[in-house]
Specification:
65% of the residues lie in helices and 5% in strands. It is mainly alpha-helical. The protein has 2 domains: 49 residues, no CATH class; 243 residues, ABC transporter involved in vitamin B12 uptake, BtuC. The longest helix is centred in the N-terminal third of the chain and has 27 residues. It is globular and about 60 Å long. The two termini are 43 Å apart.
Length: 374
């Protein structure tokens, strides 16, 4: 039953009552205008602000977007299923080398290279997941860790694939040779990944993934095929990671074997958890932040000077900043805000999508990883 609009000052909103006595909320025109202004500011920051920046800065912005894709790939496995991957750099790195090899050595187009990277990422996840379907939790993490080390010490040392110490050239695609055009291309790929992720979680399989994450045994009693769905999530995660690797390779125009170390795998896990498991916006923001840490410290020296002024703090050069700041943010996230950045920005995100602004709305207060509450 609809009720009359109540005036509440300049930010007046309208409401109505639905069945069961639960209030429904609909923003007023002024409320939508305020939201539109915020959306316009976000669009300006993402689409317009990078214009006119130097090439080096645009490469860092593109890297931030690509890290968002990688964070979303790990969120499929860690956030939706509750399985930790400690070898995710292997999926990203193999995707990078696959695309670079196809473009440079096979003289095929960038689009073929990206498609091959996605396919190879999904295929290696299918094989590894098929082998380790019977194990979960810590043992699954150890399997992925072992795979990451095998890739680092063996696969990435295949000179025909990686180009040896000099690395493999990975030129930007035709029509996107300039850094600002490639930045927009990366944004398009991020939008596609976000849409695929959103659609996937609206399907029956997506809802089953969340049930599987909360309690696999209970989910199996409702007819959920635990092993098959875990494998499905692993394949999707590997495909997204392969895409991120291909975009990283062509952003730097050369991919080197030394890049894909275990440290990078740790950064991927940390940025996903700090961003907020199951929060797409939080994961993208957290991943972009970790991609830009070194750039921000180099750009704003006052930040680096302030951090170095802390007694006992190591010299935070841009190269090691992520490995020092990341664990600190991870500890703060797990102890204070288990939902990460996504939990903190949830009231704003819901307000932007037309809900009432509620500062106390933080969603779930706990994050589960394989039945262990963090």
């Amino acid at each position: 039953m609809a009720v009359e609009t109540a005036s509440r000052g300049p930010a007046a909103e309208t409401g109505e009552t639905v069945e069961g006595g639960e209030p429904s909320f609909r923003p007023s025109p002024i409320g939508w205008l305020a939201r539109g202004i915020v959306w316009a500011a976000i669009a300006w920051l993402v689409l317009i602000f990078p214009l006119g920046r130097e090439a080096f800065e645009l490469q860092r912005y593109s890297e931030a977007v690509i890290f968002g894709i990688i964070g979303l790939s790990l969120n499929v496995l860690l956030g939706y299923v509750g399985q930790i991957s400690l070898g995710h750099q292997a999926f990203v790195g193999i995707g990078a080398f696959t695309s670079a090899y196809i473009v440079t050595e096979q003289n095929l187009s960038f689009w073929v290279g990206v498609a091959a990277a996605v396919a190879v990422g999904g295929l290696q996840a299918l094989v590894l997941g098929g082998v380790s379907l019977r194990i979960t939790g810590l043992y699954f993490a150890l399997v992925t860790l072992a795979y990451g080390l095998v890739a680092e010490k063996n696969i990435f040392q295949i000179q025909e694939l990686t180009g040896g110490g000099l690395g493999q050239p990975a030129p930007k695609p035709k029509g996107f040779e300039s850094d600002f055009r490639y930045y927009y291309l990366c944004l398009v790929f991020l939008a596609i990944v976000l849409w695929v992720d959103w659609r996937m979680m609206r399907t029956k399989s997506g809802r089953a993934l969340l049930a599987l994450r909360e309690n696999p045994r209970v989910a199996s009693t409702f007819g959920v095929n635990v092993r098959l769905l875990t494998l499905f999530a692993f394949v999707v995660s590997g495909a997204f990671a392969g895409l991120g690797g291909a975009l990283l390779a062509h952003n730097d125009t050369r991919v080197s074997p030394e890049t894909w170390s275990f440290n990078l795998a740790l950064i991927f896990v940390i940025m996903t958890v700090v961003g907020g498991l199951r929060s797409r916006a939080g994961v993208v923001i957290g991943s972009a932040f970790f991609a830009l840490i070194g750039y921000l410290l180099d750009k704003f020296t006052i930040l680096q000077d302030g951090l170095n002024a802390i007694p006992g703090a190591p010299d935070l050069s841009p190269e090691i900043a992520r490995l020092v700041i990341g664990p600190v943010l991870l500890l703060l996230t797990l102890t204070l805000t288990p939902g990460g950045i996504g939990q903190q920005i949830r009231p704003i995100v819901r307000w932007l999508t037309g809900h009432r602004f509620d500062l106390k709305d933080r969603g779930l207060k706990e994050v589960q990883i394989s039945d262990v509450r963090a």
